Amino acid sequence: MTQAATSLKVTPLNATHRASGAKMVDFGGWDMPVNYGSQIEEHHAVRRDAGMFDVSHMCVVDLKGDNVRAFLRGLVANNVDKLQVPGKALYSCMLKPEGTVIDDLIIYFFSENWFRLVVNAGTAEKDIVWMQKRNEETAAGLTITQRRSGEGAYALIAVQGPNARAKAWEVLPETKEASAEMKPFNVVIVPGTAFGEVMVARTGYTGEDGFEIGVAAERAADLWNALAAAGVKPAGLGARDTLRLEAGMNLYGQDMDETVNPLDAGLAWTIDLVSERDFVGKQALLEQGQKAQFLGLILREKGGILRAHQKVICAQGEGEITSGTFSPSMQEAIALARLPMGVVVGDTVHVVIRDKQLAATVVKLPFVRNGKVLAA
């Protein structure tokens, strides 16, 4: 490990990445692989076959106790009462009282006294502090346990692509019966595999099918190497970003954060404002409403690349790009943008790139899903 990397946090797969010749970068204080050679090849492997990502910097948090469901009813903006069958999962945001986003996360329901959260890497510490504070304020009496480090630590490997599940079953045949009929946004825990107990969730961050697999940290390298031997291509942060952006998926810290109303970040579908249930931030959202739209852009003129924070000039006023990239699947510059109300799909807007105003078309998200280009 280089001296510069010694102060960075590392996942259980760090030595494996380095042994594979990965290019490592500082990602929010974590020493993470950006690619293993060709970022473009890694991107296409996920769209066309199967690739895998080390997402162990994300943090598994177990919430246990008699009042978990009631606690989550007040903690998150989506309605956990949708989770009635063990093994179901739910995407949601956790909000400040002002209605802005503390974090976006996935909730897994295992039993009435055990829900599992997976939260973002850079927000994990503040998330847990916030949950502990709410736990005390509401006298919920829960046990809140992070599983990213220490005893019982979990590693997370995302296996994504049209052939991802089949290749995962080659390595983890014991999981096939339990997960073969499992629909997206479901999870199962399978004991007794060659790598010990594993959590298999049919979730992901690429717009492709696949699994996010949780395994004991000490078995992570063995599982990673077995998946690679089965033809699953290791992929780094670079491909993960182009894939998620093509899929129209928000990145915390870019597309939303503690200054952004989730209604303005295209996340209205995750916010339950209809039921009588109260939650932190609900009143603020009702008072503020939606003031901007979250849409896609495709650059139509040569001369630039779309990047975060570029100004977007619309007939209705100014907007801003939140994430941008060059799409390997589309061979075009694309972006996620927060645009004024009144802008509609098909409109031509102009992005300010250096001293130029370049035309772009407003499109509905996602750009790409399940290997197919949807936006043109």
Automatic annotation (TrEMBL):
MF-aspect GO terms: aminomethyltransferase activity; transaminase activity
This enzyme's EC code(s): 2.1.2.10
Top-level division of the source organism's lineage: Bacteria
Reaction(s) catalysed (UniProt annotation): N(6)-[(R)-S(8)-aminomethyldihydrolipoyl]-L-lysyl-[protein] + (6S)-5,6,7,8-tetrahydrofolate = N(6)-[(R)-dihydrolipoyl]-L-lysyl-[protein] + (6R)-5,10-methylene-5,6,7,8-tetrahydrofolate + NH4(+)
Enzyme class: transferase
Keyword Cell membrane: no
Keywords: Aminotransferase, Transferase
The UniProt record lists the keyword Nucleotidyltransferase: no
InterPro entries for the chain: GcvT (IPR006223), GcvT/YgfZ/DmdA (IPR028896), GcvT/YgfZ_C (IPR029043), GcvT_bac (IPR022903), GcvT_C (IPR013977), GCVT_N (IPR006222), TrmE/GcvT-like (IPR027266)
A Pfam cross-reference name: GCV_T_C
One GO term describing the cellular component: glycine cleavage complex
One Gene Ontology biological process: glycine decarboxylation via glycine cleavage system
Binding site for substrate: 212
Residues of the GCVT N-terminal domain: 15-273
Domain Aminomethyltransferase C-terminal, first and last residues per copy: 294-368
Function recorded in the entry: The glycine cleavage system catalyzes the degradation of glycine.
Subunit-structure text: The glycine cleavage system is composed of four proteins: P, T, L and H.
Protein family: Belongs to the GcvT family.
UniProt cross-references to NCBIfam families, sorted A to Z: gcvT, PRK00389.1
Protein name per the record: Aminomethyltransferase
Designated gene of the protein: gcvT
